Amino acid sequence: MEAGARGMHWKLLILFCLLADGMSQDFGQTQFICTSVPKDMDICAATLQNSVPGEDLKSTVMQLRETVLQQKETIMNQKETIRELTSKLTRCESQSASEPGDARVGGRRKEMGTKNTMGDVSRGPTDTLAQLSRTLQSLKQRLENLEQFSRNNNSVQANSLKDLLQSKIDDLEKQVLSRVNGLEEGKPGLRNESEQRGRVESTLTSLHQRITDLEKGQKENRPLDKFQLTFPLRTNYMYAKVKKSLPEMYAFTVCMWLKSNASPGVGTPFSYAVPGQANELVLIEWGNNPMEMLINDKVAKLPFLINDGKWHHICITWTTRDGVWEAYQDGVMRGNGDSLAPYHPIKPQGVLILGQEQDTLGGGFDATQAFVGDMANFNIWDRKLSVGEIYNLATCSSKAQVGNVFSWLETSIEVYGGASKWTFEACRQLN
Fold this sequence. Notes:
This is Pentraxin (PTX) domain-containing protein. InterPro entries: ConA-like_dom_sf, Neuronal_Pentraxin_Related, Pentaxin_CS, PTX_dom. Helices cover about 40% and strands about 20% of the residues. It has helices at about 1-25, 45-50, 55-100, 125-155, 155-185, 195-215, 385-395, and strands at about 225-230, 240, 250-260, 265-275, 275-285, 290-295, 300, 310-320, 325-330, 330-335, 350-355, 375-380, 415, 420-425. The longest helix is centred in the first third of the chain and has 45 residues, at about 55-100. Residues about 10-30 and about 95-115 have low confidence and may be disordered.
């Protein structure tokens, strides 16, 4: 009987091998090996005993997998490094080709840890001319103001300086006109664009300084509130700082006169940052977005349209109860809403900056968000003004009030980076 069982066992083994050999036809180079297995042992267990030890195989597979993952990570890091280097090289080549010697750093906000210092500075001749034209227009307006002042005060020295500055402006306008003609005719002289621009900017800097010095002579004779701030360029270093902080406020009204034709976006007329919150209170129009009011980093879109190069009076009111807000332009309410940072009081002990948006307390400016234009009569109240009170401000009524939290006084503001103060009286010099 035992001999019969052994014979049957070998017959089954031979049959298994024949079947395996037939199945191997479907697997190309795959090879099946037949092994004698004792009759009382499980076939799968016997197969594992005669193969590569399981733990060793598992260990080998894990090591190979770890190696592949490490190589993949290394390749991704190298690709990212190459991408960053390529991006930097492209920007450098672009800046070198358009404005050799320019020390600005390109890029959008927070990109690769850099700040755009001159977001409005041109990358081509046409943009350069547009920027120079705006600067010249700003200087001419200041000069006309000085001329009016000198006539009223019969100042011989002011008249002589005015004539000299007018001559300088005329020379600069001729240079701009010459470069426009060069662009239209495609003259090769544009190769010296960098040198020409350097000379023009040097002259503009000198001219700006002379006008600023001349304007300083007016301060002794003008009321402290009859002035405006001018931000002629979109940079990350031109701004004004309010000397005092704001108190805790459960409601407020902020009003001002603004004049700008900057595009896209007039920038940031003001920003108030406190420790731990850079966007405690911000008014900003950035890129192609509408003007926005930010309170504790919450946003409300405002229906203002002011970048037409004319003076506009704007007011925003807000109360912490339900976050109710109203927006007024030129004395008329243009929009309102609620749920803007409800029940969040404006925090004290912060920094109030005019002309720049703060990413950190008192700094972290981005040129692409800088305000370009003129500003006057910036006032803040710790209550909601009535419709009549706002209308009085917009029409320069004798009943108009000044802010009880911050009032527009020349001695309360410090200017930096080329921003300037000069004589201005609302409603008498509008548009």
